[in-house]
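for the recovery benchmark. tokens below, seq after
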């Protein structure tokens, strides 16, 4: 693989139902839930753009049309607020729309994150790519000018040229909610993965280092996903495919800088809203 290869493409699996936010998500995609005045999915796309990725692929299911509408023009609204003080509220989304190209692919059955990523193969082709789960909202480190989590992974990819996943330490009692890694620390905060387990019970977890929703993946992952049998709940797990990949090639896990909010839970969503209101919106 050429050392100059740059990550251009990013996938956003967004086909889930968001049942933990019912009834709000009965008719609205969970990815469109707002943190203050901006939907979750836009925060994720802005993070990808910050990392230099401008080709954005959404893996969607039924009832997700609002995501496509959000990243498109709304001529009636824009005409109504043109020249008013409200027009500035569209600056961020217009920047994203003017800079990125968007592709939408349909995941017809909810067969797991691994299956969702495999659905995106026609867009990705033979390039390395990123995956962002919008439920995991990653804020910039508050004490530096560092990039957010995905940008940090992309910088490491430039050095290592291999699949890289973001991790953080979680309470051991919470491991059943995550994929968990074990491995050798080869540099401060950087681990060479030797094993990965999907949602282990606390007594079975090899460590408390949990995978969160930021990945840089090399294109051979698609072949590993095709050969990965369904795991828990009959779903194809990216964790299982990466575990097999790590036995054949280098896979790294990185403790990223910055705060991460689990916006797939009501508690995390409220924490994120408070954080962004206090640190960004109210300034």
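predicted aa per position
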């Amino acid at each position: 693989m050429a050392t100059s290869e740059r990550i251009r493409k990013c996938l956003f699996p967004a086909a889930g139902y968001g049942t933990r936010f019912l009834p709000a998500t009965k008719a609205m995609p969970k990815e469109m839930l707002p943190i203050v005045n901006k939907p979750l999915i836009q925060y994720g796309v802005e993070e990808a753009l910050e990392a230099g990725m401008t080709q954005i692929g959404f893996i969607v299911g039924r009832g997700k049309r609002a995501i496509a509408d959000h990243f498109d023009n709304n001529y009636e609204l824009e005409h109504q607020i043109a020249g008013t003080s409200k027009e500035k509220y569209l600056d961020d989304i217009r920047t994203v729309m003017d800079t990125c190209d968007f592709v939408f692919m349909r995941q017809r059955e909810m067969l797991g994150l691994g299956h969702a990523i495999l659905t995106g193969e026609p867009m990705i082709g033979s390039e390395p790519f990123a995956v962002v789960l919008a439920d995991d909202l990653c804020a910039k480190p508050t004490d530096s000018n560092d990039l957010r989590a995905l940008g940090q992974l992309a910088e490491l990819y430039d050095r290592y040229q291999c699949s890289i996943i973001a991790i953080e330490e979680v309470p051991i009692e919470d491991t059943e909610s995550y994929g968990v890694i074990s491995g050798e620390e080869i540099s401060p905060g950087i681990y060479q993965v030797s094993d990965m387990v999907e949602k282990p019970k606390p007594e079975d977890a090899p460590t408390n280092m949990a995978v969160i929703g930021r990945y840089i993946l090399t294109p051979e992952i698609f072949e590993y996903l095709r050969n990965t049998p369904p795991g828990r709940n009959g779903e194809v797990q990216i964790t299982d495919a990466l575990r097999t990949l790590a036995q054949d090639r280098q896979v790294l896990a990185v403790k990223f800088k910055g705060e991460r909010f689990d916006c797939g839970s009501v508690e995390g969503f409220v924490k994120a809203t408070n954080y962004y209101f206090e640190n960004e919106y109210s300034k």
